[in-house]
Amino acid sequence: MKQIDVCLTPELLHLHTVENTIVVVADVFRATSCMVTAFAYGVNSIIPVATIEECRDWQERGYLAAAERNAQRVDGFELDNSPFTYMDEQIRGANVAMTTTNGTLAITKSRSAVKVLVGSFLNLDAIARFLQSERYDVMVLCAGWKGRVNMEDTLFAGALVDRLKDSYAMAEDSAIMSWRLYCQGKDNLPSYLANSSHIRRLQRLGIQKDITYCLQHDLYDVVPVLRGNALVSMQV
Q1: What is the number of domains present in the chain?
Q2: pLDDT, average across residues 8-33
Q3: Are 233 and 224 in contact (CB under 8 A)?
Q4: Phi and psi (nearest 5°) for 116?
Q5: Residue among 123, 41, 131, 55 nearest 88 (CA)
Q6: Strands of 64-69's sheet, edge to edge?
Q7: What is the pLDDT of residues 74-118, one digit of tens each?
């Protein structure tokens, strides 16, 4: 039987098997939610990069550029890390370079996987349906916050485990823990996450609407996948 595993933070990635595995990267607040939204609104490709300097290089080549650090937009870049920024005609057909505090770093660390997918609650069903037809094991890589575990990405991992539990065996305790956490909180995720560290961080910035939006399930039938150095969208 295929297995699903969960890596709770990129700092633990060296303890997991990436080769011969499909990796689903989750940075719910807000990088992967932004990416899914961008593809739903017609972006052509997204190049995830680890550093601001790399992002600026792509900007100088004519790409739209999104740079976020500590949950705020970096000066000198057109786009930020709010999904509402990507609900704009300017991104239709555009190629975007993006760097974020946690999410894009997690993607770049996963390049040796069979496939790297971008997951969020917004495309949870699309990701689950795609994986049902795949023959490889799956690992959910939670982006966390600066190397630490966070609740929202762990809850997404648990939600995906829940959708796949009839066809994938839970490989390790991290998958079981994530699943049980999600089962506890799924009926009211905003309330369940109310005291979490990143919720408090975002609320201090006055962006409650981003939190509410990113916790919605199954809005979009898009599956961003890494092809070379760029994410592109697969329809499922």
Answers
A1: 1
A2: 95
A3: yes
A4: -120, 120
A5: 41
A6: 72-73, 64-69, 95-99, 45-48, 230-235, 222-227, 115-119, 21-26, 137-142, 2-7, 168-170
A7: 899 999 889 999 999 889 999 999 999 889 999 999 999 999 999
What is the residue whose two structure tokens read 């972006």?
Answer: 43
Query: Would 234 be classed as within a structural domain?
Result: no
Q: What is the domain-level CATH number for residue 128?
A: 3.90.1560.10
For 106, the domain range is 2-228
pLDDT at 51 over 80: yes
pTM for the predicted model, two decimal places: 0.95
Residues 45 and 93: beta-carbon distance below 8 Å: no
DSSP symbol at 74:
P
Q: Is residue 236 part of a domain?
A: no
- Report yes or no on 152 lying in a domain: yes
Q: Check: CB of residue 110 under 8 Å from CB of residue 18.
A: yes
Q: Which string of b and e fits 160-182 if b means at least 16 CB within 10 Å?
A: bbbbbeeebebbeebbebbbebb
Question: In this structure, what are the phi and psi dihedrals at residue 45, rounded to the nearest 5 degrees?
Answer: -155, 160
Specify if 64 maps to a domain: yes
Indicate if the pLDDT at residue 235 is higher than 80.
Answer: no
Entry field: residues in the chain: 236
CA angle, 48 as apex, 43 and 51 as ends, to 5°?
135
Residue-wise pLDDT for 112-134, tens only, equals: 999 999 999 999 999 999 999 99
